[in-house]
Amino acid sequence: xxxxxxxxxxxxxxxxxxxxxxxxxxxxxxxxxxxxxxxxxxxxxxxxxxxxxxxxxxxxxxxxxxxxxxxxxxxxxxxxxxxxxxxxxxxxxxxxxxxxxxxxxxxxxxxxxxxxxxxxxxxxxxxxxxxxxxxxxxxxxxxxxxxxxxxxxxxxxxxxxxxxxxxxxxxxxxxxxxxxxxxxxxxxxxxxxxxxxxxxxxxxxxxxxxxxxxxxxxxxxxxxxxxxxxxxxxxxxxxxxxxxxxxxxxxxxxxxxxxxxxxxxxxxxxxxxxxxxxxxxxxxxxxxxxxxxxxxxxxxxxxxxxxxxxxxxxxxxxxxxxxxxxxxxxxxxxxxxxxxxxxxxxxxxxxxxxxxxxxxxxxxxxxxxxxx
Length: 372
Prior knowledge:
Blueprint: H1 16-28, H2 35-45, H3 49-55, H4 57-67, H5 69-72, E1 76-79, E2 88-92, E3 98-102, E4 109-112, H6 114-131, H7 137-153, E5 159-160, H8 166-173, H9 179-187, H10 194-206, E6 217-220, E7 232-239, E8 242-250, H11 255-259, H12 271-277, E9 287-289, E10 292-296, H13 315-330, H14 336-344, H15 350-371
Antiparallel strand pairs: 1-4, 2-3, 3-5, 6-7, 7-8, 8-10, 9-10
Helix pairs in contact: 2-3, 4-15, 6-7, 6-15, 7-13, 7-14
């Protein structure tokens, strides 16, 4: 399908390099950033368009209302924001059951719900070669939308992998590898800078199981893309015969609010609200307090990627599950019906053309950032 032209904005769009600088200054007005990690993030962003895409949600938020004003005008819900195919993973609930779903809500904000679906679709289109996706983009768009509508209008359930969703359970079990490399990698990490240890260390240590804080040591973790540059402090300890770890990560408000011109110091965090709204089995160790996220790190709590599918015949099941899980995040008694009606009323293939238009802008920004 030919890509539709990007509509001109009413005011000039700043250069992506200027946007990056402005956004990072905005974030730094709320939390201390780690300069070395930001340099590393910028280097990784120059590697390929998907890495750039993952690291620049702020730019997506700036482009979205210009490129897709008709979708921006639709119903607004509390959304994930920085949604892509690598933002799904597994964790253990309070019963010790393995659960699959969206695992990152750093950019949660009230926004056009279609933005989550379009961004997820765009990420599939960017990652299709490395993930070896066989389905055509049009089919992926339809499956995601159908899954989302199913969760929004029918019975919505979390993805608990205790005998159900056997194909997904098999996929998750493939990620439960030998724990020794996991702990070896954590133990090799460098200590945090003094100011980082002072700010995040007590939070990470306090999140450890009772009795594990004594003798704990702190390391600085470099991970992710969107939040790369934020302080990440991990408390490691030997407890009851084995190793345990808790991470504390500094959070900024959603980049949606930066794109809308709201000062960072006045902008709210919506992480806890997103967790409370979502239809999910929560990770009991995951907490957001005073601008810091704390959680358990363990070999059985990891990202699950498309390339982990046992069989490429499971592509359709996976994209349907992703669509349903996005619906699990969006579902609200007072707005679900209107949102579903809006999606059904869109022109055929509108989500696909929106993803194509956004990727055209992303690819142009990537080339400029890489050259700059």
